[in-house]
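> @MW can you paste both from yesterday?
MW: sure, first one:
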Amino acid sequence: MAFVLAGGRGSRLKELTDDCAKPAIPFGGRSRIIDFALSNALNSGIPRIGVATQYKQRALIRHIERLSPFLSTRRNGSLDILPGSEGSGGIYYEGTAGAVFQNIDVIERRAPRHVVILAGDHVYKMDYGRMLRQHVATGADVTVGCITVPREEARGFGVMHVDVADRITAFVEKPHDPPAVPGNPDASLASMGIYVFDTAFLLDALHRDDADLGSSHDFGADIIPHIVQHGRAFAHRFADSCVRSAEEVNAYWRDVGTLDAYFAAHLDVMARRPRFDMEDERWPLWTQRLQTARAPQRRDMTSPLIVHDGVLAGSRVRRSLLSDGTNIADHANLEEVLLLPNCHIGSGARLKRVIVDAGVTVPAGLVVGEDPDFDAQRFRRTAGGVCLVTQQMIDRLSMRDDVRSAA
């Protein structure tokens, strides 16, 4: 069974998560971020899935509900959507381990031999079956998925020290001085938030943690360090189970938790030879496929479409992604632009390094991405020079004073 943790807001994505949780944010045209964890589970042969939701969960629940009939009729599987409460009067999930513990009855009812705990907010392709086989072969109590990162970047992760057999000897959350990979002093092993447990061991660990009044009920802060000290914890390296198409050179995993990271991941997808291939037929994105099969066709639908360099509907478009339901008027100029679903770009607008939120109507003649100081006064501008444009920001504009003519 796979248990997906999808309740977080993702506050570093700023206004993109005002109305929905990070796992529900659109990605790549017609997908959402959670689709990667769900599809990895299905493609790995794990058809029983539980999804814990909490923050602004309505859009996320509607999206993943599409999988339920598919799982039951074609995969002999099941999908349990497990909402938590955002206020009083219901279940409020406290920590990642707390979210699983609150739904322990679901795991007991499904009675799987193993449980794979997954974060629902990362972009990657991975065969969990390879990780499961390592878990069984080593006799581990827990196996932790990990990626190799530059040591100076590891401070924002849970980081592990391992011996020559990849048994974890120390696990620390966001350390100031991250332990290095054996034989590679400039790199560290960082947790991906993916854990494999024997079910019986997991249930015992959750009960023990729930009884600990000093616990924050978090896998990275509490459960995993306890097992490292008192049990058998092993690391599983992402490179050993990453799925790559012929187009992809390197193993690809990205936490798209900031606007700059979200934008950069789309540039990776949009490259002529993509660093991350979302169209891999051997490892399909299932919710994307189901949505495509059911989506009504619209005459103004130009997408999802990646445009490397060309003229579209009388407008110049370079290195940009157009999601479902977008429409571009004549004489616009777009360069490195992400249009989320159902956007309209007015005539003569000029946009460069811009994320346009779903449902936004960009006024004719609006210029974004050419004057950093002016952009920062009107929109959300990141340290990396990316602008986020939402409808609320557009509505605040004074057309007389703030909208520059592109003429």
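MW: second:
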Amino acid sequence: MITKRIIPCLDVKDGRVVKGVSFVDLRDAGDPVELAALYDEAGADELVFLDISASHEGRKTMVEVVRQAAGVLSIPFTVGGGIGDLEDMFQILRAGADKVSINTAALQQPELVENAASRFGSQCIVVAIDALYDPSEKDWYVYTHGGRRRTEWKVLDWAQQAVDRGAGEILLTSMDQDGRKNGYDLALTRTVSDRVRVPVIASGGAGTKDHFVKVFTQTRAEAALAASIFHYREVGIEDLKAELKQKGVHVR
């Protein structure tokens, strides 16, 4: 039986953790290395760090954050944001990350996914997909550049392409739900997790323990990611796992 994973996400800007709603209105949520250590102790299964100020200076800041976090963590962690080539990946992995997450660069140069999987192994390569529903098209489209630019890719088509090219995992974020705390986008998560052959991490919308129960029992998502409800201590990871076990969800 697959063990479901709980993954706090740390959006890092200029060396600090921030959180917003639908990718805007950011507010400070703390020191990334301190939060990483707290989540490790609290029973998180993995962590995701996303560098949302990924200029050249932001990248240097992030490498140092990764190096410091690697010194306090015993759980795997993934780093994404502004990673544009194999050298960026190498620097992040060498600093101590277990996986790298790519979004915009993967869409701009799909061969990067293949090359990265070949060099570092598929298990290290996460393709992040920011999805927004288009009611007129009755489908989800992929967005890049931190949710600012729509592409012509439909989410399911791109997810399948990314996996075919070597992605070992899909980090699927609903922009419609992000930060709103009214639940994961179950239809989106189900659509993708039913079709691809690699683990899907559901992201965007967690607000209660029941939202995790639903995403794990009503879709094939193997992991669920959340940020603000953990950062502001609205839901504790230990309590969440107890609730999931009670509802028959297999967790560590």
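> thanks! The CA atoms of residues 119 and 247 lie 41 Å apart.
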